[in-house]
Specification:
The complex is a heterotrimer of chains A (269), B (324) and C (351). Chain A contains nine helices and ten strands. Chain A has helices at residues 52-59, 82-88, 109-120, 125-138, 155-167, 185-202, 213-219, 237-242, 247-254; strands spanning 5-17, 23-36, 41-45, 67-72, 75-76, 92-95, 173-177, 205-210, 222-227, 230-236. The longest helix of chain A has 18 residues, at 185-202. Chain B has a two-stranded antiparallel sheet. Chain B is mainly α. In chain C, helix 3 (126-162) packs across helix 10 and helix 8 (233-240) runs antiparallel to helix 9 (245-253). In chain C, 56% of the residues lie in helices and 13% in strands. With 351 residues, chain C is an alpha+beta fold. Chain C is elongated and about 85 Å long. The longest helix of chain C has 37 residues, at 126-162. The A-C interface holds A 57, 60-62, 86, 89-90, 92-94, 96, 98, 100-106, 115-116, 119-120, 151, 155, 162, 165, 169, 182 and C 232-234, 236-243, 247, 252, 255, 343-344, 347-350.
């Protein structure tokens, strides 16, 4: 079966101009290859600076890679024109690391939730509100928070709101860029469970980017390890985490105090 | 070193751009000096035409600009119709007086603002600081024009200071000591006016910059080590505050120049200000361009000085350089 | 919140002050161009409550002026001629706020002219000229500030949002404007425009010139805000939903610039009023007979006026309450901006 997402040889350069006027070249992605099948979760792990966020932004079409191809549902989304790409965008959504930063502090929850619907031009006013409340229910938020501003919500509630917003356009692929890292431990577990529920009920596909191996073990079917812009090891979660081949993977595993939730095979229970 | 050369090139670029723009504006302006002459029945129209040709007012724009540049290189900077001489000597004589006024005021203003600002920042929100805030606010709400005119009224009513001008009528006959005294007396009011007009903002910004540094974590850590207040201030806080303060210095030059323009006109101080105003009213184009360029030169020069100071004081700028 | 109440306080002060100037026709007893050649350079008439015999009167009155013995231009109070100050008198016609024809003035006297702030060389009432003059000067300041902020907003937003060569070009252009001290720039711009023009044309010309001078600093501030907001996650998220550039600017990015723009407005308006005053004072602004705060002061350039007629200086202080109001407004806006930022930071959003 064709994979939902197929990333081929992705390369991304950043050029920065320093105060003194010279140009600094940064190679964020250096030839990245991987695939994700529908309904599964791929965790991309690595240290800070390994290029994980750049990868997330490229797949979400928020950055343009220097070279390479990204096949989504059989189409190369990089080569598309912007108005064609705008039709594909609802299908790939990104959840950011900082729950507060990803929500406009001046808008209330209802306005935040209905924004994607307004932008895509679907539904009338009343239908949109109705849809927004059903989204709130789906992520486990009470409908009273509809009029609240983000600063009145807790971290966990904000992240749920962000997930609800991402779900508004019924995406097929959800990219989670360190989405749980800024939350407290107990809240992390709750959101992780919510994500797993959504995956089983809606058939969502996740690209889960994290530096937290324990969480990766808990949630992922497959794991890819990144170091300095390249994937140094990838495969089914169990084999990568049990029998690491690479220096990087071993190093990452060694720095985890204890694998929570035991082996990945315990996940589906 | 390359950093300084780049800043120098940048300054030069600014100067030349301003000269081109000013020249363009001047050329586009309606009316010229000779319109006045044409109205004068005593001057024959042929003379006017000949003068126009002589000053190349009929040639196309780029040609005029190039010939003006040429005259700049030869040290003339164009010709003043009103004074019937090259612009440069006129300007230099006046510029000396303006610089005398402005530099004295700068030194005095910073000499007062720095200690006051630091003193105030150390006692943030206590009554000395509040008192100073009120004082600067009181000065700020008086418009510059009101301040200058008020000082003039004061001079006239009390006769303590001369009400304008730069030298007494019998200046040349005075002994050197008396000459200096005379100059100082004439300079007092303009300098006081200039200092008072920039002081309040300066004090506020110094206070803000130093207060920011004093609240920085690294300074709190140093205080926790038991370092004496004096050392803390001079070896930790002020060097860290040097960056914003030096930028402030560059920024304050513009305000000082603008202030000096008004003060020179009102108090008849023979600087660039009155010359510029006269030239504007009389449509003496090259003098106007010269005056505007002088102010740009001074401002850009002052900022370049500030850049150099910054380079010397702030190691972060030097390391950026070496990394690239 | 403390910040909010002090903001309201300053706003009220400013509204009242501007209201007085806007209704100049009511507050001023006479038409500002009305001359009385027989009474040049009269000193201010002080309202009294106690007359020369020590009697207290409920209604204030003034003494008319008479020439001092042996002087041809020094006046003193003529204690034999007292005029009661009447309120809500009918006087010269004017249009309230430029629309409603009216005849009522706040105060006046019967069969006499009251000079609260003295008169000028043509016998015109300085007080009336002061109040009317405020209309021109304040309007010039407000409109000039509006133009500057509009230009600064557009150029700053364009530079910050699109970056690249647009940013470079605009910032270099801004540097040119910052490389000249503002008064020199103002003079230069004014110099190259026609000198002898009608008051209306001069007024609009000055507004445009003043507005064109100061755009560089607000543009830089707007650019900084746009640059930092552009990188924030909620903007990225909106782009992920298919938002266009215009939508992002309009709904997410530009609202963030509101506080910067308001603070700049509070700082710029008094500066621009001062600029108009300076230009008019030196004869480069709005010409006679239209009164502005600047040209009310221009005859102080004559030594004789400076020495003998001290009340001609008073219009210079007219600006002080306005400056105070705007300073207070700017301070409280800046305070609010600071507390808002602190509140945002403590809620855990990334720096």
């Amino acid at each position: 079966m064709q994979p939902l997402l197929n990333v081929e040889n992705l390369v991304k350069h950043y050029t920065k101009r320093t105060v003194s006027g010279a140009r600094d070249e940064l190679l964020a992605l250096n030839g990245v290859n991987f695939t994700i099948h529908a309904g599964t979760t791929l965790a991309v792990v690595g240290e800070s600076g390994s290029g994980k966020s750049t990868l997330a932004f490229c797949v979400a079409c928020l950055e343009y890679p220097t070279s390479g191809r990204i096949w989504f549902d059989g189409r190369d989304i990089i080569q598309l024109a912007e108005n064609e790409r705008r039709k594909i965008r609802p299908k790939i959504q990104l959840i950011f690391q900082d729950p507060a930063g990803s929500l406009d502090p001046r808008w209330n929850a209802l306005e935040i939730l209905t924004e994607p619907l307004v932008l895509q031009g679907k539904f009338g006013c009343e239908e949109m509100e109705h849809h927004a409340y059903s989204l709130l229910a789906r992520v486990g938020l009470p409908s009273e928070i509809g009029k609240s501003l983000p600063m009145e919500l807790s971290g966990g509630q904000r992240q749920r709101l962000a997930i609800a917003r991402a779900l508004a356009l019924e995406p097929k692929l959800l990219i989670l860029d360190e989405a749980l890292s800024a939350l407290d431990c107990s809240v992390q577990a709750q959101i992780a469970n919510l994500l797993m529920d959504l995956q089983s009920s809606l058939g969502m596909t996740y690209l889960f980017i994290t530096h937290d191996l324990a969480m990766a073990a808990h949630l992922a079917d497959d794991v890819a390890v990144m170091n300095r812009g390249q994937i140094v090891e990838q495969g089914p979660a169990e084999s990568v985490l049990r029998q690491p081949q690479c220096e990087t993977t071993r190093f990452l595993l060694a720095s985890v105090p204890r694998l929570v939730g035991a082996s990945p095979s315990a996940r589906k229970q | 070193m390359r950093y300084l050369l780049r800043r120098l090139g940048h300054a030069f670029f600014l100067l030349s751009s301003v000269s081109i723009l000013t020249f363009l504006f001047a050329a586009l302006a309606p009316g010229n000096y000779f319109d006045e002459m044409r109205l004068n029945p005593q001057i024959a129209p042929e003379t006017v035409a000949a003068l126009r040709a002589q000053y190349q007012l009929d040639r196309p724009l780029p040609v005029r600009y190039v010939s003006w540049l040429n005259s700049v290189i030869h040290g003339e900077m164009g010709f003043s119709f009103a004074y019937n001489s090259a612009v440069a000597p006129l300007l230099i004589a006046r510029a000396r007086n303006t610089l005398l006024l402005t530099i004295t005021a700068t030194l005095l203003a910073w000499g007062i603002a720095l200690p006051l600002g630091v003193w105030s920042a150390e006692r943030l929100e206590c009554w000395p600081d509040r008192l100073l805030s009120w004082g600067t606010a009181a000065l700020l709400v008086i418009p510059d024009l009101g301040l200058v005119l008020g000082l003039l009224v004061l001079a006239v009513k009390t006769n303590w200071f001369p009400a304008g001008g730069m030298a007494a009528v019998d200046f040349e006959d005075l002994s050197p000591v008396h000459k200096i005294r005379d100059l100082a007396l004439h300079m007092t009011l303009p300098v006081v006016a200039l200092v008072l007009s920039v002081l309040p903002l300066l004090v506020r910004h110094v206070r803000a910059a130093v207060a920011d540094v004093l609240q920085a974590p690294f300074l709190l850590a140093a205080r926790g080590h038991g370092i004496s207040r004096r050392t803390l201030l001079y070896r930790y806080a002020l060097p860290a505050a040097a960056n914003p303060l030096i930028s402030l210095f560059g920024f304050s030059i513009g305000g000082l120049l603008s202030g000096s323009l008004l003060i020179e006109v009102v108090m008849s101080w023979p600087g660039v200000g009155p010359l510029l105003l006269e030239a504007i009213l009389g449509r003496d184009i090259f003098v106007v361009i010269g005056g505007v360029l002088f102010s740009t030169l001074f401002l850009v020069g002052g900022n370049f000085l500030a850049d150099m100071l910054l380079y010397w004081v702030d190691p972060r700028i030097r390391t950026e350089r070496s990394r690239a | 919140m403390r910040g909010r109440t002090s903001l309201a306080k300053w706003l009220i002060v400013l509204v009242v002050l501007h209201g007085i100037v806007a209704c100049a026709g009511f507050f001023a007893p006479y038409d500002p161009v009305e001359q009385a050649r027989g009474s040049p350079y009269l000193p201010p008439m002080r309202p009294h409550l106690v007359d020369k015999n020590g009697h207290f009167h409920v209604r204030p009155f003034v003494y008319l002026m008479k020439l001092q013995e042996g002087s041809f231009d020094q006046y003193e109070e003529d204690k034999s001629q007292a005029k009661l100050l009447r309120f809500f008198v009918s006087g010269a016609r004017y249009r309230l706020l430029g629309l409603l024809p009216c005849r009522i003035h706040l105060f006046g006297a019967e069969n006499a002219r009251i000079y609260l702030l003295g008169s000028d060389a043509f016998g015109r009432d300085q007080f009336s000229r002061l109040v009317f003059g405020g209309q021109v000067s304040l309007l010039a300041g407000l409109l000039g500030a509006g133009i500057t902020l509009l230009i600064g907003l557009c150029l700053g937003a364009a530079a910050g949002y699109y970056g690249g060569w647009i940013d470079d070009l605009l910032m270099r252009f801004a540097e040119l404007f910052l490389a000249l001290p503002w008064l020199y720039l103002l003079f230069a711009l004014r110099a190259f425009l026609p000198l002898a023009i009608s008051p209306i044309k001069a007024f609009f010309l000055i507004i445009v010139v003043i507005g064109a001078v100061g755009w560089a600093r607000p543009a830089r501030l707007v650019r900084a805000v746009v640059l930092s907001t552009k990188e924030r996650d909620f903007v990225r998220a909106a782009r992920g939903f298919g938002a266009t550039d215009l939508y992002l600017l309009r709904r997410h990015i530009l609202p963030e610039t509101a506080s910067v723009l308001l603070t700049q407005a509070a700082i710029l308006v008094p500066q621009f009023v001062l600029a108009e005053m300076t230009l008019s004072f030196l004869g480069l602004g709005v010409p006679e007979p239209v009164p502005t705060w600047g040209n009310l002061l221009s005859n102080l350039q004559q030594y004789s006026v400076l020495v003998s007629y001290w009340w001609m200086y008073l219009p210079a202080l007219a600006m002080v309450p306005f400056f105070l109001g705007y300073l207070g407004l700017a301070s409280s806006l800046q305070e609010r901006g600071k507390t808002h930022k602190i509140a945002k930071r403590s809620l855990g959003s990334l720096p």
